[in-house]
Structures are given as C-alpha cells and as structure tokens.
Amino acid sequence: MTITITAFERSPDGGRGLARDTRVRWALEEAGQPYEVRLVSFPALKQPAHLAVNPFGQIPTYEEEGLALFETGSIVLHIAQCHKGLLPDDADGRARAITWMFAAVNTVEPPILELQNARLLEGDKSWTAERLPLVKDRCRDRLKQLSAYLGDREWLDGAFSAGDLMMASVLLRLRSSGLLDEYANLAAYVARGEARPAYKRAFAAQLAINAPK
C-alpha cells in the first residue's frame, strides 16, 4: 500500500514550496503517512506513461495500489478522508472544512494565478503595464473578503484542517508580489501554516530535490 506521488525533477521555483506537490506532501505529513516520490522531467510530463495518470500532463499525481488521482484538491481530500488529522470528526465541521478547500482553489486561487501569468508570462507585452493594476485589484478584492472573514481567528473554522492547508498553500503564491503583506492577519495566517512541523518537513523534502548538485 505504498503511496507514490510525482514531482518535478527540477522545480521552476527552485524548491520554494510553490509547486503543487508541496500541498500533497504537506497533507501526507500531517496525516503521518509515508510516501515515495517519482521525479518527472518536463518532457516526460507529455509522454503516454504520465498522461495515463494525469491526462493534462501536470504534477502532482497520487498512486496507491490500483488508485490513481490527479488535481491537488482531490488528492488532499482523499488523504483527509482516509486518515486522521485533516478533517474534524463531526459531519458539519467536515463539510465546512471541505467547503474551504473548494474556496481556496475555485475562488481565491484563480485571480492569484492570473496575476502570476501577467507578471511572468505576459511581462513583455505592450499592454501589461496597463493591465497589471487591474489584475492586482482583483486579487485584493478576494484578499479583502478573506481577511474580513478570518479576523483574529487562528484558523478558518476552529482547529487546523485541510481547508487551511489548501488556503495557506494558495496564499503563499502571493508572497513575491507583496500583496499578502497588505493584510496583516492573512500574512500571519500563512506564517502559522509554514510554522507547522508537517509543513516544514514537506518544504524541506521538496527543497532537497532542488538543491544544487
């Protein structure tokens, strides 16, 4: 029953925790589950062997016995449902935690990814300077709403859950933009996630792969 996940052979972020396998590693560490990592090169992502597990040619994937999954939300939810530590015991609490998982990837992450694309992939376009402030403001709209809800809570809904894991992972993508620092409670929230021993182990494992040889 060995769990095997895939990760970039060399991550574009240099192992700073932004590649999506970090979310899966973190979930497995929180759940206390050992796992193996199969490193994949960029050309290999588009080969039949990998496409058979993830038809979109992305990482991470998750394999355990005959089960193969892709998409971090699905993988983390599966881990949380199968192992203790990531979802509350009561049905309502579990439902709320799962709702926050969906909110992270469906509501908060899209404008963040739009900002990343505008900065990294479209930075040389003639219209970028005019468009970038609009994209940043769309991020701020979501951050303002999330900040107002979080208030002075430690986590989104009582104890730490898979909802917090996904939300903190999404918000980490904003660090280099400076936008996260505009909302002190969100910056502190992400820092609490990073301070968790399970996150530190996940981060260290990814960084080790990308360390200079």
Q: Treating each run of at least 4 consecutive H or I residues as one helix, how many helices?
A: 8
CATH topology of the largest domain: Glutathione S-transferase Yfyf (Class Pi), Chain A, domain 2
Strand content: 5-15%
- What does the main sheet amount to? 4 strands, mixed
Low-confidence stretches: none
Shape: globular
Helix content: 40-55%
Mean pLDDT across all residues, rounded?
Answer: 92
For the record, give the distance between the C-alpha atoms at the N and C termini, rounded to a whole number: 32 Å
Secondary-structure content class: alpha+beta
Number of strands: 4
CATH architecture verdict of the largest domain:
Up-down Bundle
For the CA atoms, what is the radius of gyration? 17 Å
Order of strands side by side in the largest beta sheet?
Answer: 2-1-3-4
Question: What would CATH call the class of the largest domain?
Answer: Mainly Alpha
Order of helices and strands: EHEHEEHHHHHH
Number of spatially distinct domains: 2
